[in-house]
Amino acid sequence: MLDVTFYRDGRNRIAGVAARGHANFAPHDADIVCAAVSAILQAAHLGLAEHVAAEVTAAQKAGVLELTVGDRSRGLEGTRAILATAELAIEQIAAQYPKLVRLKRARLSRGIRSAGAQRITAPRTRRSHQDV
After folding, report:
1. Could you give the number of structural domains in the chain?
2. Structural domain for 67, as ranges
C-alpha cells in the first residue's frame, strides 16, 4: 500500500506531504501507479522551487518521498495552487486504485522527515517562468 499524507498547519495551509510505501501494481521498475504519484510530487517540488521560489525541502529514500514547505511560503498563492493541484491529482489516483493508494490528511504536529531519508534539492534552471 502506498500511503500519501498531506499535512496542514494550524492555519489549514498545506505544510507538506509524505508518500510512504509502494503500490505494488506491478514489478518495481514497471509500477505505473507508483510512478504517477512520484511524478506528481516531484513536479510539485520543482514547481514550488522553480516558479514560486518557495522555501521547500525534500527528503527521499527507498519507498519514501517527503516535501516540507516553510511557514513563510505556505500562504503564497502559487504554493497553495501547486499543492492543492497535487492533492487533487493524488486523490484521483487513490479513488481509481483504492486498494493500492491511500490518501490521508493530517495536522502537522512535528516534522515530516523520516529517519534515514536523504535531503534532495530541486535542480535550478536559468529559465524564468516567463520563458515557458
Report:
1. 1
2. 2-131
